[in-house]
């Protein structure tokens, strides 16, 4: 659009578009006028032909109307008499049918009542079965609880025996410990006496030496005493080490703590307990799944029973409906076989077709068409439905002679080799197809049911009849094409002369066509219902079989649930027993571990004492060596004095170790006494705990006995109730069998009554069909009198001439037929054809002149448009080349480098071509405008604007923030370029960029110092620059 404005070709394009619009309108007008001219050309010749037949038609029509009125009145009177006779028989049969209806209803009510009682008993049986299931579950739970209680009692008894054995063991151990303690006390007393004797003897020896006055001897004595004390201490320590090592070996050698069988048993018991817990969880989950499956299967069983009930009702309804439709179908088939609904003569020919060689059949029996066209075809054929088709004129002549000879009435024959076929020209058919609601030509919408080629008869009867959907569309077609008979789907008619026939038709006139159509519809319904009935029966059987399978599955699930419940109860008992066993082993293991801990702690303590004793022994040995050295020194100094005390010292050296040994033994005995007393306290504590547990077990045993008694009482009551319900279930099952037999017997009675009622209904249907046929025949004739002649039956019978007998009616029918044949030979006529022909000719001449004017105008417009196209191409090409050259030069100036060019997308089609901008900013590759950044695209667009202004300057240009996306350097370059063009073009720039404002000659701004009050300010930068001497 920008390049077109720059080239000055936009105005030319707009002129071309306006010319194209005018050309399109001219072309549309030409098409419309051509259609009208062709349509009028097709009407001129037929109108001329119709006008010559109008007078002949009026003469034949007058004779036809007179004799048709008399014939219709006589036939109505005769048909009414036949109807009265049939009505009497129908009334008698209706009374019988009412009686049979009452009997059928009574038998069906009895069956329904019995079925309701049967269902009540079945529901009660299901309820009893559910209660039995619950009681069975309760019995299973009680048996499990009893078994669990018994096993718990046995386990408690075993535990009590074990606890009692442990108490006895502890008692024996206490006796042994007390005896050992007494022995230790006796040994301790004996050692104390012996120690006292030795100490007394030592004191005596020491007294002998104390009388020595010499100081040196005193020091020696002190040193010797210290040495002896060290020897005693060393001996005591040695004895302690020996005793401690002995005790350590004994403790380590004690086999009681070598292996822990209890821990192993506890591990195995815990594993068994976990196994039972897992098994219980799995069984519980399995029972949950089974319960879910049982509930779902039970719901499925109920749903199946409900589906069976509903489907059984559907099957019964379908059976009843099918029987009614079959009865109606059979009645109509009988009517069709007897050819009821046909005239007397036609019926005689059809009933004795072998006596009439060459007769193919009646039109009503040989044609078929869609059901939606029934009313239209019935109206279109009219009395022609009674016509008989023959293979030749000779066959028709022979058939007429045979009817005369046998006095079998009259009939109209259509010889295939002598009929005039009516068709509508293809051009007219093409025109008809353009109208809304057009369905087709009647002859094209029917099909033949015979192997004979009866196209001639079909064209004769329906070749000039047009079928449309509504009276409105029929009127629209008649206004354009009024030469043919137009019939709607509702049976309304627009005749060629302009007359219109329509209104409410009798819905049950039982014409041959309607009978055949209804038979076809009933056959389709029977086929559909039979298929549906069989499918429903098969589905019902499948549902019953499925219900049996579901009930079987339900029983299997019930048995499986009982088995799982039994297993769960057994597992629960085993689990409880195993829990008690684990608890017992845990207590035993705790006791064992406590003893092991005490023993280990004792061993550690002994090892510590041994280490301390060894350290002390080493220290004493060192001190002894020092004392001995000191004594040797003193002895050397008191050599003489030593001889005196040698004997005493010898004896003391013997006594001191003995005294030290006795002291060590006493200390060991004290330690052992303390240990035994601790063991006695522990055993007494364990015995007390076991006695408490025994008391708790005895108390639990009493509660268990009471609980077992309660459970046994509950079990007895549930068993009694279970037996009662089982007896009730047996009674209900017996009643169901009896009711089933009674229902079958009642079904047979109901079926027999229904068959009788069906026969009566079929007979009543036959009567109804006959009466309906008579009513239809009467209505058809009354309708004809009313619609065609505007007469009532009374007026028509009053105008009729002659006696109403068969001979008179045959004569009138023959005369009517002759008149109709004459009219049919004439064919469709248009009484207004002469005036219509003149009007059409005048309009045809006028439209020819209009057509020539439009052709000349179209040629002139096409020539002008070609001239405009050449001018646009020339100007656009010149402008594009100039702008492209300018753009190529300006781009490196604006960008400070780079290059760019403009290319045509379609150089060979300058009227429709587009323009592609390809640019290469400095430092980048050559690429299309869409691939550039936002700032680069903006600056490229500005460059293109400068190129256009250079080629085609404009006096005034408004720029609205076009440089907003540019950086400061490009903004400055942009503003400087504006200055280069301001000599030829005045620029008004809306901007917020400082670089652009600096280059402006005049600045304008809007401020608002007060609310709602704005003020415009302006600054002339050019004047300020001149004043300040700035360039």
TrEMBL record:
Question: What keywords does the record list, in alphabetical order?
Answer: ATP-binding, Coiled coil, Cytoplasm, DNA-binding, Nucleotide-binding
Gene Ontology cellular component list: chromosome; cytoplasm
Please name the InterPro entries in this protein's record. Answer: P-loop_NTPase, RecF/RecN/SMC_N, SMC, SMC_hinge, SMC_hinge_sf, SMC_prok
Q: Which SUPFAM superfamilies does the entry mention?
A: P-loop containing nucleoside triphosphate hydrolases, Smc hinge domain
Picking any one GO molecular function of the record gives: ATP hydrolysis activity
- Bilayer-crossing residues are none
Using the UniProt annotation, give all residue ranges assigned to the region (Disordered): 282-301
Q: Domain notes, please?
A: Contains large globular domains required for ATP hydrolysis at each terminus and a third globular domain forming a flexible hinge near the middle of the molecule. These domains are separated by coiled-coil structures.
Q: Which PANTHER family match?
A: STRUCTURAL MAINTENANCE OF CHROMOSOMES PROTEIN 3
Protein name, UniProt field: Chromosome partition protein Smc
- Protein species of origin: Lactobacillus helveticus (Lactobacillus suntoryeus)
């Amino acid at each position: 659009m920008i390049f077109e404005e720059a080239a000055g070709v936009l105005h030319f394009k707009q002129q071309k578009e306006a010319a194209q619009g005018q050309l399109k309108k001219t072309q549309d007008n030409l098409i419309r006028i051509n259609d009208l001219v062709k349509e009028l050309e097709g009407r001129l010749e037929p109108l001329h032909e119709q006008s010559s037949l109008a007078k002949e038609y009026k003469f034949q029509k007058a004779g036809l109307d007179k004799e048709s009125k008399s014939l219709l009145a006589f036939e109505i009177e005769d048909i009414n008499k036949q109807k009265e006779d049939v009505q009497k028989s129908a009334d008698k049969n209706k009374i019988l049918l009412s009686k049979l209806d009452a009997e059928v209803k009574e038998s069906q009510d009895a069956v329904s009542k019995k079925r309701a009682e049967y269902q009540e008993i079945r529901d009660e049986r299901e309820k009893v079965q559910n209660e039995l299931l619950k009681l069975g579950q309760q019995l299973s739970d009680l048996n499990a609880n009893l078994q669990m209680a018994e096993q718990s009692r046995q386990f408690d008894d075993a535990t009590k025996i074990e606890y009692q054995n442990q108490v006895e063991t502890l008692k024996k151990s206490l006796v042994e410990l007390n005896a050992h303690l007494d022995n230790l006390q006796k040994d301790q007393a004996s050692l104390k006496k012996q120690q006292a004797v030795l100490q007394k003897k030592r004191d005596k020896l020491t007294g002998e030496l104390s009388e020595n006055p010499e100081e040196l001897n005193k020091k020696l004595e002190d040193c010797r005493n210290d040495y002896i004390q060290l020897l005693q201490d060393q001996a005591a320590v040695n004895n302690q080490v020996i005793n401690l090592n002995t005790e350590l070996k004994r403790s380590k050698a004690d086999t009681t703590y070598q292996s822990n069988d209890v821990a192993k048993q506890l591990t195995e018991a815990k594993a068994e307990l976990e196994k039972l817990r897992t098994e219980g969880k799995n069984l519980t989950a399995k029972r949950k799944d089974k319960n879910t499956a049982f509930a779902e299967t039970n719901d499925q069983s109920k749903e199946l029973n409900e589906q069976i009930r509903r489907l059984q009702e559907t099957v019964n309804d379908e059976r009843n409906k099918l029987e009614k439709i079959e009865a109606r179908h059979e009645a109509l088939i009988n009517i069709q076989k007897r050819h009821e609904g046909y005239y007397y003569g036609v019926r005689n020919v059809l009933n004795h077709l072998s006596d009439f060689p060459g007769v193919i059949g009646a039109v009503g029996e040989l044609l078929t068409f869609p059901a939606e066209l029934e009313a239209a075809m019935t109206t279109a054929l009219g009395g022609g439905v009674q016509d008989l088709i023959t293979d030749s004129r000779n066959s028709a002549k022979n058939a007429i002679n045979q009817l005369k000879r046998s006095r079998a009435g009259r009939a109209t024959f259509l010889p295939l080799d002598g009929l005039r076929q009516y068709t509508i020209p293809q051009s007219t058919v093409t025109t008809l197809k353009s109208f809304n609601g057009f369905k087709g030509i009647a002859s094209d919408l029917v099909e033949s049911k015979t192997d004979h080629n009866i196209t001639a008869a079909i064209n004769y009867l329906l070749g000039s009849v047009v079928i449309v959907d509504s009276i409105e569309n029929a009127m629209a077609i008649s206004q354009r094409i009024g030469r043919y008979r137009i019939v709607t789907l509702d049976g309304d008619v627009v005749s060629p002369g302009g007359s219109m026939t329509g209104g409410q038709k009798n819905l049950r006139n039982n014409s041959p066509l309607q009978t055949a159509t209804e038979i076809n519809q009933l056959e389709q319904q029977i086929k559909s219902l039979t298929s549906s009935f069989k499918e429903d029966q098969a589905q019902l059987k499948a549902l019953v079989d499925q219900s049996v399978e579901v009930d079987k599955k339900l029983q299997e699930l019930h048995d499986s649930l009982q088995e799982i419940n039994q297993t769960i109860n057994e597992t629960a008992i085993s689990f409880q027993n195993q829990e008690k066993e684990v608890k017992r082993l845990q207590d035993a293991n705790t006791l064992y571990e406590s003893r092991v801990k005490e023993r280990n702690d004792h061993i550690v303590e002994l090892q510590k004492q041994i280490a301390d004793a060894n350290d002390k022994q080493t220290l004493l040995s060192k001190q002894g060596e020092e004392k001995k050295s000191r004594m040797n020194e003193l002895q050397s100094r008191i050599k003489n004095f030593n001889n005196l005390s040698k004997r005493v010292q010898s004896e003391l050296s013997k006594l001191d170790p003995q005294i030290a040994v006795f002291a060590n033994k006493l200390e060991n005995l004290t330690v052992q006494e303390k240990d035994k007393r601790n063991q006695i306290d522990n055993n007494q504590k364990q015995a007390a705990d076991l006695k408490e547990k025994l008391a708790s077990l005895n108390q639990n045993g009493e509660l268990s006995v009471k609980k077992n008694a309660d459970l046994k009482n509950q079990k007895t009551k549930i068993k009694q109730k279970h037996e009662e319900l089982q007896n009730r279930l047996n009674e209900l099952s017996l009643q169901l069998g009896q009711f089933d037999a009674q229902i079958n017997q009642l079904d047979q009675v109901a079926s027999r009554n229904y068959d009788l009622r069906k026969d009566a209904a079929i007979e009543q249907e036959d009567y109804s069909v006959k009466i309906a046929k008579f009513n239809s025949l009467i209505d058809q004739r009354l309708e004809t009198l009313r619609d065609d002649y505007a007469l009532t039956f009374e007026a028509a019978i009053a105008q009729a001439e002659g006696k109403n007998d068969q001979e008179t009616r045959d004569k009138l029918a023959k005369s009517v037929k002759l008149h109709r044949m004459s009219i049919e030979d004439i064919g469709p006529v248009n009484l207004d054809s002469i005036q219509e022909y003149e009007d059409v000719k005048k309009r045809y001449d006028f439209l020819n002149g209009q057509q020539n004017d439009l052709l000349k105008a179209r040629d002139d417009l096409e020539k002008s448009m070609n001239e405009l196209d050449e001018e646009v191409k020339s100007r656009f090409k010149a402008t594009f080349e100039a702008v492209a050259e300018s753009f190529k030069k300006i781009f490196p100036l604006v960008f400070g480098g780079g290059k760019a060019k403009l290319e045509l997308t379609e150089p060979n089609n300058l009227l429709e071509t587009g323009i592609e901008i390809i640019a290469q900013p400095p430092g980048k590759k050559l690429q299309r405008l869409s691939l550039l950044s936002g700032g680069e695209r903006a600056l490229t667009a500005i460059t293109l604007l400068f190129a256009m202004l250079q080629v085609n300057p404009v006096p005034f240009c408004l720029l609205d923030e076009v440089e907003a996306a540019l950086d400061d350097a490009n903004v400055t370059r942009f503003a400087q370029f504006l200055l280069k063009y301001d000599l030829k073009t005045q620029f008004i720039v809306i901007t917020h960029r400082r670089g652009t404002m600096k280059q402006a000659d005049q600045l304008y701004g809007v401020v608002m110092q007060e609310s709602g009050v704005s003020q415009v300010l302006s600054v002339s930068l050019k004047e300020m620059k001149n004043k300040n001497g700035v360039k």
